[in-house]
Amino acid sequence: MAERHVTLYNILVVVASTVASILLGYQTGSVAYTLGQVSWYNQMGLAMSPTQPGYSHTVTITSAVTGAYYAFGFLGSIAIGPFMNIFGRISAFRFALFWHIAGSVIGAGAMNQAMYIVHRCLIGFASGNSLCIGPVYLSEIAPPLSRGAMAGMHAFGQNFGFCLGAWIGYSTSFASTSTTFGFRFPLAVPLIFGLVALGLTFWMPESPRWLTVKGRKADALNVLTRLHQAPGDTTNEYARKEAHEIMAQIAIDEAALKGRSEYAVLLTDKVHRKQLLFAILVVAGAMNTGVLVISNYSVIIYTSLGNSTSVSLLLNAVWLTLATVWNLVGAIFADNLRRRRGLVIGYAGAFICLILFTALTAKFTQTGGRSYAIGSVFFNFLFELFYGAFIDPQVWVLAGELFPTHLRTKGGSIAIAGFFVLNVVWTEAAPTAFVNIGWRYYILFVCLTGLQGLLIYFFLPETANVPLEELEELFGGRVAIHMDEIDVAATGNIENTGDTYDKNLEQGHVGSKSHEYTHAEDAGSD
Question: What are the Cα distances from residue 350, in Å, to 187, 284, 286, 501, 521?
């Protein structure tokens, strides 16, 4: 078995980063259990039942609070790309956490609809930041053979946050409706995670890739050594090989920019445009399964199937608990299962489950038969197994690994901005669609999920177990050198490495023999 070069320190850094992912998941899911709280409707002056006067205004407000989150998430994802490049990954974490904390303070103290919408805007912006930072940071601190498991913790953290929020929301639903504790306490909990995550950023190391870009080569090597030094490796050979490969690739990548902006390169260069399209397909396209419509409106969906509000909140909490388990399992086995294979299995299973969920929901609507409602709930839960274990972990791993270092933050932010655009479209339309066309809304997600699976099966290359600096070859790009070609003894002082590659680049000597990474098995054995 190949050496994975995972240290306890590396694992602890991943755990620390995952705290921010938990906060992100909690914030994203907060609308589901807030919309299930009677005290929230009372405080906001909104009708809770379709039979009550003014319910049309409630539909408008619920659409607004959901849409505001994703609209500002779009802005946050676009803004954080340049920020990460300029100030670094750790400063980006702190920037996002500031907005998470500010938004949570306003949400917990919301007295009216306007304050709650402002809360949703701020945590949406923060979540757009966080959604981009996690995959980039985790992919840049992980060794190749464990990158799937480590970057997959971003998905696990999100689902753990979803799950925690659901159980807290369910528990507080039993609070007296004459008080506002039922919805205020859950909205205050993110303050704990925000402050803990903020404190951890003062211990977490900066990305060695960003340090290299900024010319801090010795610092980059020190971080790589702490993260990946094998037991008994007194010469730091593996870390030094990583450092040399990173420096060499960054040298030719930056030279290839030729004074153009990263956005221009992403849109005009054939190789990088292909990477961008794949990123949008995988990251944004995952939302075409309707997973966030199901999770955000789960209480409303379960209630429409004849369940009480309390039972619906409980089902939502159980669904998210299982999603967290599936995510953890999926992340652990992400590197063995590989990216493309995992996604194909996930989309095939999700497609079948959505068909049966839609059909049974339609039958329940027409007949009111309890067995159809039970069947709908069952296939909704089975859908989450395929999405949580096979799709979700791979999506966020690919979000951080598809692009080279100089384009990673901005390319990833564009793909995640697409994620938010689709969520605005699907979640904004959901309340009105549920009222006007009901179960037929799910037919759209059935068709898109099938199409998504086919596109991934036929076109997505396998990226598992390949060093980040060598992924360019999969898309027809140029690689400076492969790690197995590096002779540490012959490369000299790490401080001079970048200068050496710059000179070779000017003379046209930087390049490497091609490795054929057409299958994950080949990549893993290299």
Answer: 31, 16, 11, 47, 26
pLDDT category of residue 90 using cuts at 50, 70 and 90: very high
CA distance 271 to 256: 12
What is the end-to-end Cα distance of the chain in Å, rounded? 12
What's the CA gap between 291 and 357, in Å, rounded?
13
Rg (CA), the chain: 24
Please give the average per-residue pLDDT across 124-150, as a whole number.
96
The DSSP line for 73-132 is HHHHHHHHHHHHHHH-HHHHHHHHHHHHHHHHHHHHT--SHHHHHHHHHHHHHHHHHHHH
Separation of alpha carbons 330 and 379, rounded Å: 19
Task: Please list, in sequence order, all residues whose beta carbon lies within 8 angstroms of the beta carbon of residue 453, skipping any fewer than 6 positions away.
Answer: 343, 344, 347, 348, 350, 351
Question: Ramachandran region of residue 306, left (φ > 0), alpha (ψ -120 to 50) or beta?
Answer: left
Which residues in 101-125 are b (16+ Cβ under 10 Å) and which e?
bbbbbbbbebeebeebbbbbbbbbb
Helix (H) or strand (E) holding 387: none
- What is the set of domains in the chain, with CATH numbers? 8-204+262-459 (1.20.1250.20), 210-257+468-525 (no CATH)
Joined tokens for residue 370? 């309890």
Residue 382: both structure tokens together: 């089975």
- What is the rounded CA–CA span in Å between residue 384 and residue 276? 27
For residue 23, the surrounding DSSP H or E stretch is: helix 8-34
Sign of the CA dihedral with 514 first, then 519, 520, and 521 last: negative
Cα separation of 324 and 303, whole Å?
23
Distances (CA, A) of 100 to 25, 66, 202, 206, 224: 12, 16, 17, 21, 30
The answer to whether the CB of 411 falls within 8 A of the CB of 402 is: yes
pLDDT in tens, 478-502: 898 888 888 776 665 655 555 555 5
**Rounded CA separation 509/500 (Å):** 11
Residue with tokens 């602890």: 12
Residue 517: pLDDT band by 50, 70, 90 thresholds? very low
One-letter amino acid of 262: E
Phi then psi for residue 413, to 5 deg, are -65, -35
Helix (H, G, I), strand (E, B) or coil at 445: helix
Residue 148 confidence (pLDDT): 94
Residue 345 has pLDDT above 60, yes or no: yes
Give me the pLDDT at residue 316, please: 78
In percent, the amount of the chain with pLDDT more than 90 equals 60
State the chain's mean pLDDT as an integer.
Answer: 88
What is the number of other CB atoms lying within 10 angstroms of the CB of residue 138? 29
Residue of higher predicted confidence among 513 and 156? 156
Q: Say if residue 59's pLDDT is above 60.
A: yes
Residue 92 CA to residue 82 CA, distance in Å, equals 10
